Amino acid sequence: MIPLLGEEEAQAAADAVRSGWVAQGPRVAQFEREFSARVGADHGVAVSSCTTALHLALVVLEIGPGDEVIVPSLSFIATANAVRYVGATPIFADVDLATGNLTVDTVDAVRTPRTRAVIAVHQGGVPFDVAALRKAADGWNVALVEDAACAAGSTAYGQPVGAGATIAAWSFHPRKVITTGEGGMLTTDNADWARRLRRLREHGMNVSAADRHASAQPVLEAYLETAYNYRMTDIQAAVGLVQLGRLAGLVTQRRARAERYRALLADLRGIVPVRDPAYGQSNVQSFWVLLGPEYGTSRDEVLAELAAQGVSARRGIMAAHLEPAYADLPSAPLPVTEQLTRDSLILPLHHALTDADQDHIVAVLRRLAGR
C-alpha cells in the first residue's frame, strides 16, 4: 500500500503549523463533522488510532471483567487486544471463506450467556452483512461494535459502511485508503456516547482544551472520571480533510484495478480472488487471493518468488489465535480462519500501480502455477 499524499496535504499541514494551533482544535472538529457525514453517522469523535477507538467503544458500552466479547481471529491483533484492555475475554469466532468476515452462524456458534458484545470487522474493506448481524445482535441483546478500520468508502445495502451502526471504529493508518499518518475515529448516532467519548479521549475533562482557550472568561475544568490521552492533532486532521476529498476517486481507481486483476486471473486454476458480496461493495483496501490445491505452489513459495521478482506482496490476514500473545486463550476450532491465513496472499494495489505492473505480477503467478 502506497498512500497518495501530495502538495495539497503538505500545504494543509503547513497551514495548521503556521496557525499556531497544532494540537486538537478546529481542524479536528471539522474533520469529525465531514467524516461522520460521509459515512452516514450523526457524530464523529477523532482519536489517535483505531485501536484506541475500539478501546473507547468498549468503555462506553461498559464492558469489563467477567464479560465475553466475540471477535474474529482473522483480523489485525488490535481487534482482540482492545477486549483485553477493558479486562474482558475475547472469544474467537470463525469467518466466511468468501468474505473473511463474521456471520450470524459463526458468532452464534461461540455465543454464551456471558457474551456482552461482538466486534465484527469489515475485513480488508469487504463489508460484512450488516443487516443480518445487526438484527441478530439485537435479538441476542448484545452490543455490535463495527471495526471499520479498513472500510472507508465501502458500502452495504446501498449505504456507506458506518450508516446505522451502533458504534463504529475507523483507522487512518498509512495502509488504509485515506490516511492521517496515524489516527482513528469513532462514529455513532448516540449523542450521549459522543459527549462521553470526547471526555474519555482527553483525560476525562468536562470541557475540551479548545473550548477553554476559545472562552473569553477563565474556565476551571473538572475531571469527571479516570480517562485517557487519545487525541488527534490538528496537523493530522488537516491532512485528513484533504484525504477525505480524495476518497471517492481513490475507491473508483482501486475497484478498477481489482477488476483488471480478476480478468487477468480468470482462467488460472487454483486462484480465487476476493470479490464483492451480493449486498455491498468493497473499497478494495486489500486485494487478496486464495490459493487452492489445484494451484500447485504454496503461498509462502509464491511470496518468495514474487519478492525475488521485485513484487512486494504480503501474507494474508493474520490469525490472532495462532500468535504467542493468545497462546493461553483456548478457542473453538477455526478451520476457515486457518485456511485463509495459511493459503491467501495480498497483491499490490495502490494509486501508482500500472497495467505493466499488474501484467508482471500475473505473469509470475502464471509461471508458478502447477509447480
Automatic annotation (TrEMBL):
Belongs to the DegT/DnrJ/EryC1 family. Keywords: Aminotransferase, Pyridoxal phosphate, Transferase. It comes from the Bacteria. The active site is at K176 (proton acceptor). InterPro entries: DegT/StrS_aminotransferase, PyrdxlP-dep_Trfase, PyrdxlP-dep_Trfase_major, PyrdxlP-dep_Trfase_small. It comes from Micromonospora terminaliae. GO terms for molecular function: pyridoxal phosphate binding; transaminase activity. Pfam families: DegT_DnrJ_EryC1. GO terms for biological process: polysaccharide biosynthetic process. This is DegT/DnrJ/EryC1/StrS family aminotransferase.
